[in-house]
TrEMBL record:
Residues 703-763 form the Alpha fucosidase A-like C-terminal domain. One of its GO terms (molecular function) is alpha-L-fucosidase activity. It comes from the Bacteria. The lineage of its organism: Bacteria, Pseudomonadati, Pseudomonadota, Alphaproteobacteria, Sphingomonadales. Residues 1-30 form the signal peptide. This is Glycoside hydrolase family 95 protein. GO terms for biological process: carbohydrate metabolic process.
Length: 784
């Protein structure tokens, strides 16, 4: 991608080191809380991180750091979520539209290998790959008067409830503490170094970067300014600035060749701001210099205590909305890496709680209003060539990132996803027109900061037109969980545009008479060696059934667009239905190719979309299809890549097989799929497994479909007693739940809306009539 990553450095030493000592309130150590909430709200370790997959993530949605917790040398690996390679570009292949009818004809004629070859030659994006997410660099803090070898009582931790990373150790007679916090209010990272003795803090602070950048030092301020790299022939269009101000209390400031030194201080606060010139996918005119300058100035006026107080309140507003208890054993007191390492051979139910809490923490830290959506690595990436570009893969991974958002009460964190779909609809309208001659908009299997929507990588990965449609189901879910009519009106045009595209491109299969997508693939599976291209894969039909239903329902709710809704309803009836194949399995393709497909244990289970996240297949309403989905799951096997393992847990939960779901969850939480820092191992690191696993734990405890609420639908015997509060279900409703010895203790349901709810507990049912904001309490005795 890039030839060199040489840092061009020009160090401008500032005037004097006479910066005024900042008055900062007494340190907010949050130590008591960190001590108290062990086991389910805290990751902790007895050694500094050596590898990135041991470091601890902090983030405010937009900027973040991986904290290594070194003794004599701290490293904060820095990210800013708009720092990607390249610039605005149009990847649509100008030959695509003319070649499309031939590709379609070859598919209909059954000449699939030729169709795929032609698609590869004429339909794919130019360039064939997209831009990648980039690291900004590292903030390095050297502690020259501390010797790592002599330090004792070392501990580092990430407290999920306060979003604070803390490193502590004793050197000589002094206890040192270092706190790192990413502030969502003040938009800075704040680091605080304290010691138990006055005048004991010495440090040298510098900024390093793998990017082409220049470091300047002016007094107590370090400024790294540079440009983003080109990739695939797309020139870098972004400027970036990372700025760090080193504020001391007491002591002296000492200029350094490439940094700032402080000696004999009582405490030091380092404020870090980062920004790029990205404003929108087609506008890179932002001023990162002015932005970061203003952010640092505003934050410095507050000091660490003020920044932390504002930020932690904002964090807790979201984080504390759900509380989970799955029971605990003494293992919950062990260091986190040890718990993961031994989890498959031990009984540590609190580890699942920690994983769930961490998933919610990670979404709050990587997706907040105004930020980019969480990408394949959330916002945390140290590589200039990250795996899969650390992009947005929208044939499962981006959607999975947001699976826990609605049920675990983090609806606010979907704001970036909704804004992202708005962008994709704009870019995707161009792709629909130029590539397909169609109205509406399309996005294929992958996208990037520039919202590229043409098919990439090769037909067997990229030639899948249903990515945008799948994302639109998340727009609908936001409505269904929140029931805000103005919101629905605001996203309706996006959903409508996604459906409009398929009105124009659906093809009638001459053999069956059904409407199908053509060309397409079933993500990313080959039905025959080297061949993926096909018409009407099951997943496309399933997604379109949801999309058409949801657009028609939205039109009815908003009382608009009647004719279009009727058109969609008619088209929906013509879509190819799900089928059961020769092995009793749910067919992945129109033809029963599943048994011949070269990878029987393929990670993707695209055709099971209908079971989860969709509700089209359900053990009650479609028992035969549910049995076929189960057969497909059995044939695919339980163990797959991180995200694919997490998907399987959700699917088994929907089949209400709690023991099976739990067995797969144990594998997900074990060392093969979870790194010491509790981040998901595809491998390599990919964050979707964390989010899919979090959603799965919720799905085992509560499910909702229409106006039905299922309590404890997939409770495993390993969680005999427990409680959860604050979970959200469809219809703007919350559920609190506790159970004992495998039996419901009590459930409380409350909604802002009136209406009947069918609450289910195993085979038994209770019908409740909710009144707005009036909680209804149910016990075992309420069910018949
Ligand atoms: C899809 C998956 C891979 C990986 C990539 C980012 O291509 O099939 O396993 O997760 O996305």
């Amino acid at each position: 991608m890039r030839q060199s990553h040489i840092v061009t450095r020009r160090t401008m030493l500032g005037q004097s080191a006479a910066a005024a000592t900042l008055a900062v309130a007494p340190p907010v150590t949050a130590s008591e809380r960190v001590e108290a909430e062990s086991g389910t709200n805290r990751l902790w370790y007895r050694k500094p991180a050596e590898r990135w997959t041991e470091a601890l993530p902090v983030g405010n949605g937009r900027i973040g750091a991986m904290v290594f917790g070194g003794i004599d040398r701290e490293r904060l690996q820095l990210n800013e979520d708009t720092f990607w390679s390249g610039g605005p570009y149009d990847p649509v292949n100008p030959e695509a539209r003319a070649a499309l009818p031939d590709v379609r004809r070859l598919i209909v004629a059954g000449h699939l290998a030729e169709a795929q070859a032609l698609a590869n030659a004429k339909l794919m994006a130019k360039p064939l790959q997209q831009m990648s997410y980039q690291p900004v660099g590292d903030l390095l803090i050297n502690l020259p008067t501390i010797s790592a070898d002599s330090a004792t009582d070392y501990e580092r931790a990430l407290d999920l409830d306060s979003a604070l990373a803390v490193t502590r150790f004793t050197a000589g007679t002094v206890r040192y503490e270092r706190q790192v916090f990413a502030c969502p209010v003040h938009q800075v990272l704040a680091v605080r170094l304290t010691a138990s003795k006055p005048g004991a803090v010495d440090c040298d602070v510098s900024l390093d970067s793998p990017q082409s950048a220049v470091l300047g030092v002016d007094g107590d301020m370090l400024t790294l300014a540079g440009r983003n790299p080109a990739e695939q022939g797309i020139a870098g269009a972004l400027r970036f600035v990372a700025r760090a101000q080193v504020l001391r209390e007491g002591g002296t400031l000492e200029p350094r060749a490439a940094g700032v030194g402080v000696r004999d201080a009582d405490a030091v606060t380092i404020l870090i701001a980062m920004a790029t010139s990205y404003r929108r996918f087609d506008d890179t005119s932002g001023d990162p210099d002015a932005i970061t300058r203003a952010q640092i100035a505003a934050a410095a006026a507050r000091g660490f205590a003020g920044i932390f107080a504002a930020g932690v309140a904002d964090h807790r507003r979201l984080y504390r909305s759900v509380r989970l208890d799955l029971g605990r054993t003494a293992l919950a007191d062990r260091p986190t890496d040890e718990r993961i390492r031994t989890s498959e051979d031990s009984y540590d139910p609190a580890l699942a709680t920690l994983y769930f809490n961490y998933g919610r923490y990670l979404l709050i830290a990587s997706s907040r209003a105004g930020s980019q959506p969480a990408n394949l690595q959330g916002i945390w990436n140290d590589q200039v060539r990250p795996p899969w570009g650390s992009k947005y893969t929208i044939n499962i991974n981006t959607e999975m990132n947001y699976w826990p958002a609605e049920p675990t009460a983090l609806a606010e964190c979907t704001a970036p996803l909704i804004a992202f779909v708005r962008d994709l609809a704009e870019q995707g309208a161009h792709t629909a027109r130029e590539m397909y001659g169609a109205r509406g908009w399309v996005a294929h299997h992958n996208t990037d900061l520039w919202r590229a929507t043409a098919p990439i990588d090769g037909a067997s990965w990229g030639l899948w037109p249903t990515g945008g449609a799948w994302l639109c189901t998340h727009l609908w879910d936001r409505w269904d969980y929140g029931r805000d009519r103005d919101y629905l009106a605001s996203v309706y045009p996006l959903m409508r545009g996604a459906a409009q595209f398929f009105v124009d491109v659906l093809q009638r299969d001459p053999a069956s008479g059904h409407l199908v997508t053509n060309p397409s693939i079933s993500p990313e599976n080959e039905h025959h060696k080297g061949v993926s291209i096909c018409a009407g894969p099951a997943m496309d039909m399933q997604i379109l059934r949801d999309l058409f239903d949801q657009v028609a329902q939205a039109a009815a709710i908003l009382d608009i667009d009647r004719a279009f809704a009727a058109e969609l309803t008619a088209l929906r009836a013509g879509l190819a239905p799900d089928r059961i194949g020769g092995q009793g399995q749910l067919q992945e393709w129109q033809e029963d190719w599943d048994g011949e497909a070269p990878e029987p244990h393929h990670r993707h289970v695209s055709h099971l979309y209908a079971l989860y996240p969709s509700h089209q297949i359900d053990p009650d309403d479609t028992p035969a299809l549910a049995a076929a989905a189960r057969r497909s799951l059995e044939l695919r096997g339980d163990r797959a890549t991180g995200w694919a393992t997490a998907w399987r847990i959700n699917l088994w939960a929907r089949l209400r097989q709690g023991e099976h779901a739990y067995e797969i969850l144990r594998f997900l939480l074990g060392p093969a799929r979870t790194y010491p820092n509790l981040l998901d191992a595809h491998p390599p690191f990919q964050i979707d497994g964390n989010f899919g696993g979090t959603a799965a734990i919720a799905e085992m405890l509560v499910q909702s479909k229409g106006n039905q609420i299922l309590l404890l639908p997939a409770l495993p015997s390993a969680w005999p007693s427990g409680a959860i509060s604050g979970l959200r279900v469809r219809g703007a409703c919350s559920v609190d739940l506790s159970w004992r010895d495998g039996r419901l203790d009590a459930a409380t349901i409350v909604s802002i809306l009136a209406g009947p709810r069918i609450v289910r507990l195993g085979d038994r049912t209770a019908t409740v009539r909710l009144r707005p904001n009036r909680p209804v309490r149910l016990t075992e005795a309420s069910f018949r």
